[in-house]
Amino acid sequence: MQFNTILVVCAGNICRSPMAAGLLQKTWPRKKIHSAGLVALVGQPADPLAVACMQELDVSLQAHVARQLDQALLREADLVLAMSVEQVQAIERHWPFAKGKVFRLGHWSQQDVPDPYRQPRAAFVLARDLIVQAASEWEARLL
Q: 91: domain range?
C-alpha cells in the first residue's frame, strides 16, 4: 500500500507530534505529513525546547500551529502514527473507522515516546531520539 498522507498524533500537538511530523517531512518531502493532538493546545506554537531539539537535526518547527485531531484529518490519512498504545486505543475507540491504519510510532521496536511537556531539555532529547529511531524503522519498511 502507498502511504501518501501521514498523520502524527500526540496529546497537545506542541511537542512530540510536531517533532515527528517535521522529521518525517524532511525524510519524505513528497508526502503530505500532518500532525494533531488528542487534547491539542489549539493555536499554540511548538514548544521552544522541541524547536531547539529539532533545529539540531536541521528540522524547523517555526511554522507549526497546534490543532485538534478530528474525523476529517483521520479520513484523509493513509497512515496514523500515535505516541503510545493508549493513544492508539483512544483514537480507535472514538473513531472506529480508523482501525487498521493507526499504529504506534514506535510500533516496530514496541516503544512509546514519553511526553516531555513541561519537563527539562533531557526529556525532549530522549523523545527526539526515540522519534528518530522510530522514523527510521518506518522508513525501512515503507520504502
A: 5-142
Distances in whole angstroms, Cα of residue 127 to Cα of each of 10, 85, 117: 12, 16, 10
**CATH code for position 21:** 3.40.50.2300
pLDDT values of the chain reduced to their tens digit, one per residue, 143 residues: 578 999 999 999 999 999 999 999 999 999 999 999 999 999 999 999 999 999 999 999 999 999 999 999 999 999 999 999 999 999 999 999 999 999 999 999 999 999 999 999 999 999 999 999 999 999 888 76
Residues annotated catalytic, as ranges? 10, 16, 115
Provide the whole-model pTM. Answer: 0.96
Coil, strand or helix at 23: helix
Contacts of 73 (CB under 8 A, 6+ apart): 7, 34, 36, 67
Q: Check if the beta carbon of residue 84 is closer than 8 Å to that of residue 16.
A: no
